[in-house]
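Q: Got a minute? One more chain.
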Amino acid sequence: MKRLIAAATAVFGLLAALAMPATAGGNSTLPVAAESQFSVMAGPCGSSYTHIGHYAIPASGTAYAHMDVYWSWTAKRNCLVVNHAGPTYGVSLYTEAKIRPSGYSWPSCPSSVGCDGGFYSYYAGPVYTPSGVNMTNKCVDISGWIDWRNRTLTKRHCG
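A: Always. Here it is, folded:
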């Protein structure tokens, strides 16, 4: 009987977790520990993406956020997440992540696959380079905002 109750509890917990709504921009209803476990399992951009860059916002002094860049050989796309850090972690501030292939126009925000912006407590993104654009041997431009601090980097991770 104890095994039956334990199994039923485990199934109920799994179903409850799957029924939770997914949200962009780090305002998930999951506890932080649960979010961390999911991030470790698949990464913020998906299972085929590998972390390739980590840049502080601003470039010097106290880091208020980090821009983390990812690459997928499978999808041939880049991905960006802007993560709150230090004094901004857990604080609802305007946070924005933008990514584009170098030489392209910046995507409109927030209604684009390449831009996510809003009042978030933990992160903005993930955002992706456009589908159909093979980023192999191309450079990427990234931009991140946290409150009034920002950083833009161009012609990164070329090829």
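A: The beta strands are 49-57, 65-72, 77-84, 93-101, 115-120, 123-128, 140-146, 149-156.
Q: Perfect, thanks.
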